[in-house]
Structure to design on (374 residues):
């Protein structure tokens, strides 16, 4: 019998443990716990990685998305009541960032091919109040194609990427501002997350905004620091959404492993793709023209509960991303009566298999166990 964790953070960071401890010691000895050199370095690395002119490191991924929308409001680009198109099957944080700012989420159903927002439905959900689209690169697959890009340009919409799950992913067509293909730099602004379970995790909460828009970046930097543009001068009724210097130091270590992390996750995905042959299971599509980063490897089956407990009995732990879509959550009672064919189906059928800490042998073993399921 196998004994495979879905995710084990001790394993995840053990390769970097010595360097992480040295990074902590460096920050402790420096006596500088906010806004120091580590934070500057992290911002430089993330801007380079995403191909953007600016990066503002912040407290977490939700705050990165909240601050983007709040920043656009402060510089007069978005207003209360404006609509933002968001996938119906995302994690709730995407939607919270919109409603926290008194804007309106307009849900768009998912594609069963990409498991991302179905860009062919955009026409059906746009209204005269639509000002932005929030593509979510769910599970590490870029939500980006010419249709989305053309639609945004034609209708003069902002593109706010939720890049929480896809740092380092590459789309199949370039972004709106330049010939950059990397998620986090495809649209007008992006929210990135370093939550510990994400592909690049801090040892606590952290996030970052990446953008080419200088006005927005400047507003966000002030908003995240009490709305202060210089000391004891407040131009906005701001927040405290700063990143800890110690988390920035950890991330400067972790980011060096990004190519290795992507390579490992892609290898596990390709083993599952080759080896899983059970007809009751639908595998995620590996797109040859993109770089997916496999934050999750998500299969589908009508016999979800049975397969999950069967895997559990055979020593394989799994997870569900996500059992309840945001529009069905109690906090969004006003949307509970909505229905989306594919988002509802996915909520009932998806299972996430181990990826992060899974060896090649274990992935083969898991595939063999799944193939015996009937
Ligand atoms: C994790 C996540 C977030 C929020 O990031 P935090 O750092 O946990 O606040 C936002 N959107 C998606 C799609 C996520 O997976």
């Amino acid at each position: 019998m196998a004994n495979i964790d879905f995710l084990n953070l001790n394993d995840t960071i053990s390769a970097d443990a010595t360097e992480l401890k040295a990074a902590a010691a460096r920050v402790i000895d420096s006596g500088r716990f906010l806004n120091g050199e580590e934070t500057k370095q992290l911002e430089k690395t993330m801007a380079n990685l995403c191909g953007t002119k600016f990066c503002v490191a912040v407290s977490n991924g939700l705050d990165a998305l909240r601050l983007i929308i709040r920043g656009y409001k402060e510089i007069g680009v978005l207003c209360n009541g404006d609509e933002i198109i968001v996938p119906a099957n995302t994690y709730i944080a995407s939607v919270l960032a919109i409603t926290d700012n008194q804007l309106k989420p307009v849900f768009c159903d998912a594609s069963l091919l990409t498991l991302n927002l179905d860009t062919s439905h955009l026409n059906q959900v746009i209204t005269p109040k639509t000002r932005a689209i929030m593509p979510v690169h769910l599970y590490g697959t870029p939500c980006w194609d010419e249709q989305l890009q053309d639609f945004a340009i034609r209708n003069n919409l902002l593109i706010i990427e939720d890049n929480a799950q896809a740092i380092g992913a590459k789309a199949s067509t370039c972004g709106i501002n330049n010939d950059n293909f990397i998620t986090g730099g495809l649209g007008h602004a992006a929210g990135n997350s370093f939550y510990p379970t994400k592909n690049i995790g801090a040892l606590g909460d952290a996030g970052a905004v990446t953008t080419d828009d200088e006005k927005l970046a400047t507003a966000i930097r002030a908003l995240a620091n009490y709305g202060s543009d210089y000391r004891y001068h407040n131009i906005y009724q701001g927040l405290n959404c700063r990143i800890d210097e110690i988390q920035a130091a950890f991330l400067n270590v972790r980011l060096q492993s990004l190519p290795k992390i992507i390579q490992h996750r892609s290898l596990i995905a390709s083993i599952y793709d080759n080896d899983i042959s059970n007809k009751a299971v639908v595998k995620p599509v590996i797109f040859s023209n993109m770089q997916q980063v496999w934050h999750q490897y998500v299969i589908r089956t009508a016999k979800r509960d049975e397969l999950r407990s069967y895997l559990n009995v055979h020593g394989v732990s799994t997870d569900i991303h996500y059992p309840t879509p945001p529009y069905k959550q109690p906090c969004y009672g006003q949307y509970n009566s909505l229905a989306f064919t594919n988002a509802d189906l996915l909520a009932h059928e998806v299972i996430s298999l181990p990826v992060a800490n899974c060896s090649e042998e274990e992935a083969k073993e898991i595939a063999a166990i799944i193939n015996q399921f009937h």
Summary: The chain is about 35% helix and 15% strand. Residues 60-62, 90-91, 93-94, 136, 162, 164-165, 193, 195, 205, 207 surround pyridoxal-5'-phosphate (CB under 6 Å).
